[in-house]
Q: What sequence folds into this?
């Protein structure tokens, strides 16, 4: 059996994701799709609007066969770390291909761009340092530095988010000497940052979330054209149970309490709280009535919104700097299965013995500091739920076995 | 001018407190009553149902002339620490008397009991150790040890809470060699723990709170017979602004988040989290749907409910053990005025120069680690308020000058 890996967030699963899944399978001629998916917190430093279980469900129905959780520290990280950990998990499960969506859609351009950047590394690094010293944020300094190089021929447009992420996948695969082919599929429909849904059958997840949350009472019907019916159902089910989609607004009371109650010297020990940001955080939170006003007041040229959002999540989840650095250095220590189809289960049976990381079906199966961290992080996510269902949700998180989906019948077992 | 000190919580101010104030002034023939009052968190490890500002207001209207805040660490402490700090603040302001309510009402009995306990100290200590080792809580072991001694004549009933507290006041005055006379007034009306209000004109604060919170929508009219009209008004005003009285229920979502999000090794560094309680806390909170179910599951013979409630407050307020121990050893480092009448202000002018602690009218006037702590603690209390008024409340706490009351006109200035 041949497996193709994809690395995803599905916040929420939409028609573009469905297209990516089908094309990945077709283009790589694979029998099984392994989706490495962020858990309850996402790369740009936000909570997922619905939980990982709901999202894993839609992924299985959409055609993925194995859903693997990308652990929190790797999921809530800059592109290179995110990409490297995703590739590592796919490698552990012996995926033979990785297929990602990109604005470019031309895999040769990725190889070409990486090699050009390698060749001009000294120039690039100097330019990057100089832009960085001028106070530009990491991504801005990176893209300015790339722009200052001379390019032999057409290069990737590195201002586009999925090109950047794709380049990191290709780089991570090369660095890890994983025997995996890289494939890319051109993203169709709306661009990543487009915020309107019209007659598009394919809209970005950003625009779907915007539309969902644009009215006081989020309405699933407003985005039905852009998502499969099972996503609508998952969203409706979540709304029914939770009364709201989970956003930074749901978690803001807890973040505010954390920042107000914690002494500055303790905040400073948390991951990404650097360069005296602890004082700025404590002063800013006193005047902030919402997450948005807080972030707007906190933002400077030096830090991107995303970098600050990730820091806020690490504060909320009480991630200590040494713990984070040790775990990130080590890489993901296990493969956690959130769900599988019958195809995925068959594939898993064939590769389980070759996997070079322990494969877990529940968190209780392994003693590891990262598992204690994952459990804390899950519980924090549920802090945004109605008070009366939090204990139920925490219990489920510890005890839920992977979702099992029978593809031929289109049913969960 | 002669000042008499009293040490109070006023949660809320009721007819018994009014009687205590009048009798204290009369019995000690004082011109000025100095009330040392707990801030937003109280001796038994609970938030006050209304804020210190509302309570200070009722105290001024009830006849107190200077309202001094007992800082958090001393207020949320066992009786000996609470009493010692209260006496220290009164001493700093040159009070010549201290008058407390007690079940006994006989000041000689306090002196007699203390001297008997001193004489039999070795026996007492042995008995205490032995009961303690059997797993009895501190107050239970104390009272059993006292019961095992032989008493020359009638002794104080040390099972009664105001007798115990009174003994600690008398002891603290003796230990500090404060030139202050001790007076006591027999508590009249309902006993401390009585929980019903009937036709009593004097009911305990405990029964008043129970009655207030007995219906889903707290009703101030139900307790009007037991409190002065200005207390009813303060309670109604608070309800109107806050939508609820502040209780552990208001703060439980924050405590739950704190316990779930904080690693056990970090909880262990907090004050009063001892003997492996961090693991018990983390396990118990996973199943708790309310503060009451949490506490009931946490409680063992070894720890009193009060001891555990105080620990929960220290966790909620992130009080580190070394910080707490250093501050408690040092004693209160300043005298913070929450409110004063014209009489109080005149008195303050006459003693200000003799005061051996800095006298503060706002928190911003002094650099001290305890002030940083007080500010954090205040902000945590406001975490129980509706989200939209928290920033306003935090701002007020930093900038509000002391309340000023003109006694002759019965008006605030």
A:
């Amino acid at each position: 059996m041949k497996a193709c890996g994809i690395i995803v967030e599905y916040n929420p699963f939409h028609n573009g994701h469905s297209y990516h899944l089908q094309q990945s399978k077709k283009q790589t001629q694979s029998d099984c799709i392994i989706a490495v998916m962020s858990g309850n917190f996402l790369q740009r430093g936000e909570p997922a609007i619905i939980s990982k279980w709901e999202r894993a469900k839609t992924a299985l129905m959409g055609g993925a066969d194995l859903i693997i959780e990308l652990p929190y520290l790797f999921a809530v990280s800059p592109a290179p770390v995110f990409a490297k950990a995703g590739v590592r998990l796919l490698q552990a499960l012996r995926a033979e291909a990785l297929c990602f969506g990109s604005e470019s859609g031309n895999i040769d351009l990725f190889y070409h761009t990486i090699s050009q950047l390698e060749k001009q590394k000294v120039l690039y690094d100097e330019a990057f340092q100089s832009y960085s010293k001028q106070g530009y944020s990491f991504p801005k300094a990176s893209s300015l530095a790339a722009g200052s190089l001379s390019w032999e021929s057409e290069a990737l447009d590195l201002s586009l988010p999925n090109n950047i992420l794709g380049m990191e996948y290709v780089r991570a695969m090369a660095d890890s000497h994983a025997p995996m082919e890289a494939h890319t599929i051109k993203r169709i429909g709306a661009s990543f940052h487009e915020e309107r849904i019209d007659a598009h059958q394919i809209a970005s997840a950003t625009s779907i979330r915007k539309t969902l949350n644009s009215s006081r009472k989020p309405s699933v019907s407003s985005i039905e054209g852009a998502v499969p019916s099972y996503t609508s159902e998952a969203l409706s089910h979540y709304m029914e149970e939770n009364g709201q989609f989970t956003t930074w607004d749901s978690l803001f009371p807890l973040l505010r309490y954390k920042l107000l109650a914690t002494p500055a010297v303790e905040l400073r020990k948390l991951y990404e709280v650097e360069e005296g940001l602890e004082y700025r955080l404590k002063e800013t939170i006193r005047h902030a009535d919402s997450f948005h006003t807080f972030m707007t007041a906190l933002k400077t040229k030096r830090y991107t919104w995303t970098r600050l959002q990730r820091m806020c999540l690490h504060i909320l989840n009480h991630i200590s700097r040494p713990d984070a650095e040790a775990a990130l250095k080590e890489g993901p220590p296990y493969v956690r299965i959130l769900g599988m189809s019958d195809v995925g289960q068959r594939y898993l049976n064939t590769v389980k013995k070759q996997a070079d990381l322990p494969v877990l079906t529940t968190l209780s199966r392994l003693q590891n500091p990262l598992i204690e961290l994952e459990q804390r992080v899950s519980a924090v996510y549920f802090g945004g739920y109605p008070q009366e269902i939090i204990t139920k949700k925490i219990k489920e998180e510890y005890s839920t076995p992977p979702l099992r989906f029978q593809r031929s019948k289109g049913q969960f077992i």
Remarks:
- Chain B has a mean pLDDT of 91.
- Residues 248-326 of chain B form one domain.
- The first strand of chain B starts at residue 3 and ends at 8.
- Chain B touches chain A through 31 residues (CB under 8 Å).
